[in-house]
Amino acid sequence: MAVAFARGTEAYVELDAIVDNLALFRQRVGPDVAIMAIVKANAYGHGAVQVARTVLSQGADWLGVATAEEGQELREAQLTAPILVLGGSSREQMGIALAHNLDVTVFDRAGWEDITGLAREFKVRPRVHLKVDTGMNRIGVRPEEVTNDWIRRLSGSEVVWAGLMSHLAESDALSDVVTRDQLAVFLDVVERIRTSGVQGPQMLHLANSAATLRYPGTHFNMVRVGIGLYGGLPYDGAPALRPAMTLTSRVTMVKQVPAGTRIGYGGRYVTARPSTIATVAVGYADGYRRALSNRAEVLIQGQRCPVVGAISMDQTTVLVPSQVPVKVKDRVVLIGRDGGNVITVEEVAKWAQTIHYEVMTGISARVPRFYSR
Asked: DSSP per residue over 5-61, as a string?
């Protein structure tokens, strides 16, 4: 007889793992370099407010977000640390940033006109970070454009020149050529500002997680730590970090099917022999990507079981080996450890032919998060 029960897909975030990872980065940079904890995209899916509170209590100095609205959420949670909006902002978003005492990133003349116009309107001096494009070729002022005009504007009375920043494109790569080229360009801009005779930016920040671990020369007086904070490996061969999230679900149905049974939408898997098929209450609407169909594995009773058939919006089917006892309501580990076996987020990303950043940030809002210390 078929037995069903309510969904049980849940994410468990171990905040102590984040604390341990932060401590590793602190050890690398020392006490005199500020750490900006990147909590954009809901702290890479881990929960922005909870993570921010934790890291600030353990010595992080700044928070980094992608949008003014993300920063607003943190301010409304009564967090008072410096917060930088890393991405581009519309005039409306810059207004939100000013209203909530957020630092903003400027990278073109239009952004400059917006922020200074708002400064005059609100009678405040915004805290501005100039982003220089040293080779990523996304947002950023071209290095050769950082002339006396930009320097004069930023060091004037309309704004507080809070930072000069750039972003590394290949700090995770085996070769260091691109990173060293970008560092050289950044240093040239820093020297140009220094020799101009004006009061330069308060903070210089270039390093991401990978560069913080690999390239001490990129540290300056602040580093930005994102993926590594959550235990994601920033590059192959990185020091051991503690994954902070475990993603689990539950078995909702177990069926014995004969050989030749077509499983799921489109019959994309056909059983070769009599088989045990477990249906699991997770799907691509939870962030368990459809690209994992017929590729991924999960853990049931600590044993690896292959995902078979097309992943649906809310359900996934798994082939359970004969030696694995399985029943309705059994816990299924999608990412994390169960007994002696572990499925890493990097492994899931490989199956999905993507990167672990996308897997982490893609876990949807309908998956409840639970926190432990």
From this structure: -----EEEEEHHHHHHHHHHHHHHH-TTSEEEEE-HHHHHTT-HHHHHHHHHHTT--
What CATH number is given for 243-372 in this structure? 2.40.37.10
Q: What is the tens place of the pLDDT at every residue in 242-286?
A: 999 999 999 999 999 999 999 999 999 999 999 999 999 999 999
Q: Is the pLDDT of residue 2 over 90?
A: no
Give Cα separations from 176 to 127, 224, 350 (angstroms): 33, 19, 24
Determine whether 350 is an active site residue: no
Range 190-209 average pLDDT: 96
255 is annotated as an active-site residue = no
Angle at 52 between CA 159 and CA 179, to 5 degrees: 65
Residue set of the binding site for substrate: 138, 313
User: Domain residue spans in the chain?
Assistant: 33-230, 243-372
pTM of structure: 0.95
Annotated binding site: 138, 313
Catalytic residue among 40, 44, 215, 230: 40
**33-230: CATH number:** 3.20.20.10
Instruction: Please pick, among 255, 265, 327, 329, the residue that the annotation labels catalytic.
Output: 265
